[in-house]
């Protein structure tokens, strides 16, 4: 069994959604993302029509993860500060 994912942590969820995004770019029509945090299991299904929503969620998580780690974002601003 895989380690539980803390879905409140953007840095933990980001790799899962990023993988789904790249699979869809590669031609997959739908992508099912399932992750667990403790006793809670989450599942989200993205279809080709949702690729923009998935892209925006990946970008949001990238910014949130950067802010959490005090890194500079791609816009040159210090995240979280």
Description:
With 81 residues, this protein is of the alpha+beta class. It has one domain (10-68): Head-to-tail joining protein W, gpW, CATH 3.30.1580. 42% of the residues lie in helices and 20% in strands. The protein contains two helices and two strands, in the order αββα. It has helices at 10-25, 51-68, and strands spanning 30-37, 40-47. Strands 1-2 form a two-stranded antiparallel sheet. Helix 1 (10-25) packs antiparallel against helix 2 (51-68). The chain is flat and about 35 Å long. It starts with 9 loop residues before the first helix and ends in a 13-residue tail after the last helix. The mean pLDDT is 78.
User: Ranges with pLDDT <50 over ≥5 residues?
Assistant: none
Q: How do the strands line up in the largest sheet?
A: 1-2
Please report the total strand number as a whole number. Answer: 2
How much helical structure, as a percent, in the residues?
40-55%
Largest sheet geometry: 2 strands, antiparallel
Named CATH topology: Head-to-tail joining protein W, gpW
Strand content: 15-25%
* Helix-strand makeup class: alpha+beta
Residue-averaged pLDDT: 78
What is the number of helical segments per DSSP (H or I, 4+ residues)? 2
State the domain count. Answer: 1
Structural Rg:
14 Å
Return the CATH architecture: 2-Layer Sandwich
CA distance, first residue to last residue: 38 Å
Spell the H/E element sequence.
Answer: HEEH
Silhouette:
flat
CATH class term: Alpha Beta
